[in-house]
Please model this.
Amino acid sequence: MYEVLTPDEMAACDRLTIAGGVAGITLMERAGRAVADAAARHPLGTRILVVAGSGNNGGDGFVAARVLAERGYPVRLMLLGDRGALKGDAAQAAAKWTGAVEAANAAKVAGAGIIIDALFGAGLNRAIDGETRTLIEAMNASGAPIIAVDLPSGINGATGAVMGVAINARESVTFFRRKLGHLLLPGRVHCGKVRVVDIGIRDDVLDEVRPQAFANGTALWAEAFPMPRLDGHKYARGHAVVVSGDMSFTGAARLAARGALRAGAGLVTLASPRAALAVNAAASLAVMVRAVDGADELRNLLADKRLNAVVLGPGLGVGAATRDLVRAALDGERAVVLDADALTSFADDADPLFAAIAARARPVVLTPHQGEFARLFKMISQHAGKTSKLDASRAAAKASGAVLLLKGSDTVVAAPDGRAAINANAPPYLATAGAGDVLAGVVGGLLAQGMAGFEAACAGAWLHGEAGNEAGPGLIAEDLPDALPPVYRRLFEDLV
Model:
């Protein structure tokens, strides 16, 4: 269930199912009954208002209204549009409804105990205005919990964008698989609890549809995850290097180094300027410290092929010296994570960075937040209002040749080949200084253990979110590495 579909992909799944012998009205009946089941969790006697549109989403609403009325609930049904304009399966569903059909009217929304939003669903791609906007605003203002059919009306199912105005649902009942709008912000905020229900679409239709977007979770990368072995040893679990900044900015690198170590790397070394050596050494126990000043000394250190992953950027500073360090790290057969200042240092001319990435075989993972992304990928960011975070991440991964981990509440991981994952387990209290440095280190630690770039970035984002949940409200970045052991314990129990 980890595939996430665009509205077009979902429509293709419907078509393939119907072509395989399942009638469209049968799918609609099952969808409507699932919505009715969600509403029926409320006590019998709860007044239910179904607000239906003129498409298939409205047809689902007609089915839900009929089923709920049959179960004894008092049901009103409002229709936005002309009943005579209903076509196909929606018309068949409407014909079975024997109750009154009221014209949709914002003034008559008040008084419902539950509202079922069956206006538009996932396929909406135009702005909502006029009387329809007023209707949705009245539904939101009513105080009644709203159950959305498929996706809250007003949310673009492909991008998660609010198309002028959108329903604030308590719950969304969707079918077969989640849609992109359920996971991408701001759509995710409007969905409430999302329930995915089986309406009889076979999983094997995905073999033909071939979706390339996924909800990030263990099923996506479990087979590639580096499980500890009884006959293993630290040298078999990789050696990560984290490059430290100057004495006043060493904390970020130490956070990344501890993240890499907690992620399972067998050894982790801080490459420290000599002026900061004492500070880094005094603050590090299991993390080793080596004196490294400048790109030439980093290149000499990395000549040891056992050092198989490098993390650069946290606390490094922006400028030519950091660019030289990045080039030294990329010049060799090792995995590389570039974060923070390592990205911003190429903001004025990213082409040399992308050329260096394209020339190498080992994975490179870029981990920008939105501001760093905008600086590094200016041409892509200029179209930010016209595209989704997912599409922007895919475009950036293709342009750079790297795996792109675009941080945020809806972190997106994209590979140059088009695969993408949306992370949805991160708590809001991860928005704290240094949390991103730990994430970069965790990804570096997984790369050191041999994970491929896309899988390492996905697993790292998921582990980071779970560590945030484990640490809980009030967490600071230092808490995150130490929150990983119980997360790993549960993960290993699930994977074994």
